[in-house]
Amino acid sequence: MALTVMFVSCGKKQAESQTTAGTESKPWVQSDAESEYRLIRAELNLAEAKKPYLVLNFPRKQVEFRLNGVLVWEFPMDLIETDESDLKGFSDDFLGSKQTLVRPILEKHLFGSKGLTPDSVLAIISEATRVNAELLQRELPSRFQLHWAGGLTIDVRTDVEGVPKSKLQNTIVDIKQAIARPLGREIIILRMPRESALTLYRATLPGLPTLIIPA
Amino acid sequence: MAVKKVLLIVILPVFTIAAIVLFALAINREKPEVIAEGYSVDTLSTELPDEEKKAKKELETARKTLDKLTPAKPYIVIDTHANRIYMRTKDKIILDARCSTGSGGELIDSITGRRWIFDTPRGIFKIRRKVTEPWWRKPDWAFIEEGEAVPKKEADRLDPNVMGDYALDFGDGFFIHGTIYERLLGVNVTHGCVRLGSEDLDSLYKQTPIGTYVYIF
């Protein structure tokens, strides 16, 4: 019997680009065309890095990750305590007077977390697999925020029961926003299942470029 | 007495308000907007020609350039954060399964000082070959990790029982393959390869031609 046997060395060796709707059937409007062109150029620039970037796709009402212009992850903007007008406000503030399409994430803040697996269980798995138990313990975000310049904030809530990491830090963030909100700074509050929230939380590091497809 | 009254009525509230304002300013102070290294955000040269015909042509070229980046055929996406693997197009998810990706752990050989970091590589890859009934050729780190001597005979490195029924090679020694540790699917535990449950692996293997793009983030 011919048996295909391949020796493989597993592991570490040493050492849609949907942007805007097409305008073919619409009458030519130079300003609209220029807006679309700027958006495409901005995305092509980001795509060159061959690294993921965040996309706030307001026409589709979804948060996305794209890599080299290719859609790799998306999740609908399931709004809570906020509405469509907040989306529009966020979009307008993000663009600002200079019509800025790409902004980096300034920081993120984790409000609470609670692991699913008890440490005692992880210790046994860790022993069996020889992997550090801390790496096995994945932090599941119950609530976190992504911040951009100008106080723009996306607040993500999940159904994970949260245990505050730092009550003081949480209080400061809450005070900061209570002061900022009357000044017109926009917050969008999203509901997300834990697994999607985990991806969004772990993949968004400060400095990560965010491309906006305006509302 | 009068001085005390002035202090209480005028100066104290003024200081309190000033302190609140300073506190508000301090906590609202923003960091500068700095894009992470490696990304280009040059959007200066974004004006279309004034002439309509030329502008249309320029815009159409830009659209096509962006569209061409998305593979025409289904592609694989590996989410190392949630440990999920997808086979998808831009509009539709064809397969969605739990997987296990790199632990991020570090191993240092105390004798030679060699160092390994067990990360799943991120970026864009292609399936280079498909293997049925793969055997694992254990690399040096597999022995060092066990506290065993690295064998001199090649045959002593081979293990037929750990990689499942199939393996999809996406380059640099990394594979999507099966596992005998299915209970750990969904957790970052591997040495860099991507482990899948046997049913999902079977389905993925059958749907994946050589040359399929793999996006890992």
Short description:
The complex is a heterodimer of chains A (215) and B (217). Chain A is an alpha+beta fold and 215 residues long.
Question: How does this structure look, described?
Answer:
- The complex is a heterodimer of chains A (215) and B (217).
- Chain A is α+β, with helices and mostly antiparallel strands and 215 residues long.
- In chain A, 32% of the residues lie in helices and 25% in strands.
- Chain A is built from six helices and ten strands, in the order βαβββαββααββαβαβ.
- Chain A has helices at 30-47, 84-95, 119-129, 133-136, 167-180, 194-203; strands spanning 7-8, 52-57, 62-67, 70-76, 102-104, 107-113, 141-147, 153-157, 187-191, 209-213.
- In chain A, the strands form two sheets. In chain A, strands 4-3-2-10-5 form a five-stranded mixed beta sheet.
- The termini of chain A are far apart.
- Chain B has 217 residues and is α+β, with helices and mostly antiparallel strands.
- Chain B has four helices and 13 strands.
- In chain B, the strands form three sheets. Chain B has a nine-stranded mixed beta sheet, with helices on one face. In chain B, strands 4-5 form a two-stranded antiparallel sheet.
- The N and C termini of chain B lie far apart (70 Å).
- The mean pLDDT of chain B is 91.
- Chains A and B meet through strand 1, helix 1, strand 4, strand 5 and helix 5 of A and helix 2, strand 1, strand 8, helix 3 and strand 11 of B.
